[in-house]
Amino acid sequence: MSISTKTMGKQRVLSGIQPTGNLHLGNYLGAIRNWVDVQSEYENFFFVVDLHAITVPHNRATLASETYTIAALYLACGIDLNYSTIFVQSHVTAHSELTWLLNCITPLNWLERMIQFREKARKQGENVNTGLLDYPVLMASDILLYDADIVPVGEDQKQHLELTRNIASRLNEQFGNKKEPVLKLPEPLIRTAGARVMSLTDGTSKMSKSDPSDMSRINLLDPPDLINKKIKRCKTDPLKGLTFDDPSRPECDNLLTLYMLLSGKTKEAVAAECQDMGWGQFKPLLAEATIEALKPIQDKHKAIMEDKGYLDSVLREGRQKAEVIADSTLSRVKNALGYLPPS
Ligand code: TYM
Q: If you take atom 37 of ligand 1, which residue's CA is the nearest one?
């Protein structure tokens, strides 16, 4: 068995987002928007990463509804079922099974050095579960199961992608041969603009679902008055005249970048428009561009959420398509490792 054949020779893209709380502008600009932009060129798999969601304490009362919300947001943001498959990670059991196999070839110290593990573990103190350490191996399984060529993510996932490649190479070296590798090595796709959207309350830390303050982020489903309030109160500096790329003004660069991406204007146009502005003049412009960019997504999300039958059918078909590929890769790996196949 070899690496799977792809639809009409197109390269395969795969990515996902955890259903922990609402999606924010970082998830949209760093990930989903880029998926939408490139989807017609590839065969795509986008999934809701619900197994990863329990690596930190989670709320059982909201996990299922948040899973629906994320799937609906994928569609609302423009994921097109003509090019893309949407499914839920826990519906395809091969993800968990491949994780076990990869666990047994991944050195422990590779996981202990992961930046995201160290950061999250520091924040959680005593309450760190084994799954948090193992998070990147599950992510490697997600990617390797689909023989993904390209994985579009934000900057913060770069190290996990490198680890995925290292795990695949190690398995190939130990159990494959040069002519026929067992696993395909994926490439990350990280766009420069929007790859690291920063917090509204601190331009030096990234916008994140886990920040305790909701004022630090704009969620895709925030109503207009809340967006106005968050932007009105966001951190700025005392200077007049707004410029990109000044390391001493991280908030300024972040807010101009948001304005550029949400308004669809070029960097040059935004630089020229804002070079003499003060914050009092700029903030309403940013708020308006944000509200306008999110309105169609919010309207579409609402309509999709009102039709759970449709959403269920999308996820059911998605699971069926995903399962065929994932199960075939899992058999290939088990075969390479020497397992007795079931008769
Ligand atoms: P999650 O849910 O933490 O993030 C989802 C995506 O959003 C990007 N992102 C950002 N981009 C720019 N600025 C920010 N402030 C920002 N915050 C988040 C992330 O880089 C990511 O692309 N581990 C993954 C989920 C995952 C996955 C996978 C992704 C599990 N398995 C397989 C790709 C392929 C994660 O970070 O989820």
A: 17
pLDDT band at 1; cut points 50, 70, 90? low
- 10, 120, 321, 334: the active-site residue: 120
| Distance of alpha carbon 168 from alpha carbon 185, whole angstroms | 6
**pLDDT tens for residues 221-241?**
999 999 999 999 999 999 989
Tokens of 268: 């040059």
Mean per-residue pLDDT for 182-197? 92
**CA 48 to CA 70: how far, in whole Å?**
7
Whole-model pTM? Answer: 0.95
pLDDT at 170 > cutoff 90: yes
Shortest CA distance to 30 belongs to which of 207, 185, 160? Answer: 207
Give catalytic status of residue 120 as yes or no.
yes
pLDDT tens digit string along 301-314? 999 999 999 999 99
Distance 182 CA to ligand 1 centre (A): 26
For the chain, the distance separating the N- and C-terminal CA atoms, rounded to the nearest angstrom, is: 17
In the reported structure, the alpha carbon of residue 15 is separated from the centroid of ligand 1 by a whole-number distance in angstroms of: 8
| Residue 184 is a catalytic residue | no
* Cα 50 to ligand 1 centre (Å): 13
Q: Determine the distance from the C-alpha atom of residue 80 to the mean position of all C-alpha atoms in its chain, rounded to a whole number.
A: 17
CB 135 within 8 A of CB 116: yes
Q: How far is CA 185 from CA 6, 96, 145, 165, 172, in A?
A: 15, 20, 11, 5, 10
Cα 129 from chain centre:
22
Do 12 and 45 contact (CB within 8 A), yes or no?
yes
SS3 206: strand
Q: Name the strand (E) or helix (H) holding 14.
A: strand 12-17
- Does 209 participate in catalysis according to the annotation? yes
Whether the CB-CB separation of 14 and 142 falls below 8 Å is answered with yes
Ligand 1 lining (C-beta closer than 6 Å): 14-18, 26-27, 30-31, 49, 52, 139, 142-143, 151, 153-154, 156-157, 160, 195-197, 206-208
